[in-house]
Amino acid sequence: MNKKLAAALSGGAVLVAALSGCSGNSAPKGPDPKLVSWAKSVCDAVPAQDAKIKAANAAISTTAADTAKPETLQKTDSKAFQDMADGYKAIATAVNAAGAPPGVSGGAKRLGDVVKSFNSLSASYADLKKQVDDLDTKDQAKFASGLHDVATQMTELEKKHQSGTESLKALQQGEVQDAIAQQPSCKKVASSTSSSPSAASTAG
Hints:
mainly alpha; disordered C terminus; elongated; Small secreted protein
């Protein structure tokens, strides 16, 4: 049952990778210094939150493999959902604080779409945490049914993950992509993402 939940959770890291996984061919003069500064403020906020989201995926995958007791599953899933909610919220806050990237057409709207998507994901994970916390671990049948419902909702959340990914891509116009590609912190996340297996592949 929890394997389905772990597989559904694997989409989370993909969303973060959308910000860090792009590489551009910079013009000889390089991006606008103001844009580079903007990219740095955003990218510097990514690694810690990316790690938190990946750890949440890994925790759920591990408890699934261990066929843990209901109490353990509840505790692990609850913390994982809270970490996911906190991670997406922190990224939304960082992007919002950075403001619209300089020189990008419609930058304010594109920025707003990114912040809205991440905040929506954060709220969804917070709601799932509450649902998991409310499950009755003493009643195996009800617990299994409740966990199944949570897993189903996680699958439905893929649409929000996709929306978030697309909003991040839309924000990366022209020199924005080049400026982000220059940031060591974003390069680090891109590298770790490409070399690490997803929860879906490890959860079975």
